[in-house]
Amino acid sequence: MKLTFWGAAQQVTGSMFLLESDDYRILIDCGSDFDLDEIGRKNRYDEQKSVFPFDASLINTVLLTHAHIDHSGNIPNLFKEGFEGRVVCTEPTLSLTSLLLKDAANLHQKRLNARNGASGKKKGKKRKEIPRDYFVEKNVIEALDNFVPVAFGQRYRIADHVSITFYPAGHLLGAAHIVVEVFENGEKKRICFSGDIGRSNYPLLTDPQEVPDVDYLICETTYGNRLHETKEEPETALADVIKRTCVDIPGRLIIPSFSVGRTQALLFTLNKIYANHNFPNLKVFSDSPLAYSSTKVYQRHVRLLNKEARNFQEDNDMLFDFENLIYLENAEASRAISNYNEPCIIISSSGMVQGGRIEHHVEANIGNPYATILMIGYASEGTLGWRLLNGQDTISIRGKQLPVLANIEKIDVFSGHGDQNDLIKFVKMQNPDKLKGVFLVHGDQQSMADFQGKIQEMGYNNVEIPLRGRSYEL
């Protein structure tokens, strides 16, 4: 049996791992690589003569840990390049992946239109080369027809000698640790792919579930050398910010938030705050069509949420809808919020303030000393969110240089990633005397190196940090 690391190897994004047993090939995750810029991706794809470093038609099955694009975003391209198998995941992952891939396809279509003119068919105009990894909605629909949902805890046979089981990972609705059992030469081997590991006591989601003993562990390390800073409960931390920014002064609170996962945790927490705190009737504007669609998926899968969420649903009928919540349906309604002069809360994507409607809200409020921009998660270096967090006096938005007069704050209680302690807890589920190997992925190089040292001190040996393209015989 051979395991090859084709993504999230000494970097965070692009999760993609190839497991081969006899003539059966399993791809675990098939994510978009955001660590490379567009030129870097083009050069790699040109060199490979493909989006993939392998023949897509030879893959038999894809296992998907969860819906986020850095894990699912290249699935339509896999089908475009000849894959004819199944994509196996949980039911909520199927629903959320459908939304995210269709959103990505719409973005690709807009970029194609911009490259080639509004119609793309202007006479005499040379069409620009289409990036290899662009797909449209038709490709997404063709891919989704081959998704097979499997319940948590259900042992599912994908080949005569291969079975899989999904265990709740927290992090996102439907997210899973995947244990693969392979019977080879009269011997059973177990490999666990962590996916993204959630944190304990996160709003809405169950805690990451324990997995059985395995022979090999593939573990993410996003927060491999970091601890979450905010120690308060999400409701307490957010209520404090709202009181200071919208109640004590007549201000407005702008919250950049990812549409899938983060926004649902925010809305649920706001619903609890409005139910439990004596706050005035502050309007809450949720400005993301994708967030609206994702919220309906969460509402539909209440039975998979944590006990607190299920009890709240039973007592209050709805997890996310409350009296002062307004969903903004179109771009015109989004722009009109600039004319709303009362204290309010605006939640919009993206979470790193890189593209999306949030850029307009930041631009409209960055010069307002009565406005607060609350960052609630990680922002990659170079993004607008990263520049705000690093205290720049001026920022450039849409070609305009603007002074930063708004207040910039940060809390990390809504980060869906487990920190170093959560990752250690996950690894400690395994007996160090029985575990034959640990492979660290999905983190920057320093995070991986620090986490490697940490778990080696705990007695875990054979801890590898694979390079992209490195294969291991298991």
Automatic annotation (TrEMBL):
<dbReference type="Pfam" id="PF07521">
    <property type="entry name" value="RMMBL"/>
</dbReference>
<dbReference type="GO" id="GO:0016787">
    <property type="term" value="F:hydrolase activity"/>
</dbReference>
<feature type="domain" description="Metallo-beta-lactamase">
    <location>
        <begin position="13"/>
        <end position="258"/>
    </location>
</feature>
<dbReference type="GO" id="GO:0004521">
    <property type="term" value="F:RNA endonuclease activity"/>
</dbReference>
<dbReference type="InterPro" id="IPR036866">
    <property type="entry name" value="RibonucZ/Hydroxyglut_hydro"/>
</dbReference>
<dbReference type="InterPro" id="IPR022712">
    <property type="entry name" value="Beta_Casp"/>
</dbReference>
<dbReference type="InterPro" id="IPR050698">
    <property type="entry name" value="MBL"/>
</dbReference>
<dbReference type="Pfam" id="PF10996">
    <property type="entry name" value="Beta-Casp"/>
</dbReference>
<dbReference type="InterPro" id="IPR011108">
    <property type="entry name" value="RMMBL"/>
</dbReference>
<dbReference type="InterPro" id="IPR001279">
    <property type="entry name" value="Metallo-B-lactamas"/>
</dbReference>
<feature type="domain" description="Beta-Casp">
    <location>
        <begin position="263"/>
        <end position="388"/>
    </location>
</feature>
<dbReference type="Pfam" id="PF00753">
    <property type="entry name" value="Lactamase_B"/>
</dbReference>
<protein>
    <submittedName>
        <fullName>MBL fold metallo-hydrolase</fullName>
    </submittedName>
</protein>
<keyword id="KW-0378">Hydrolase</keyword>
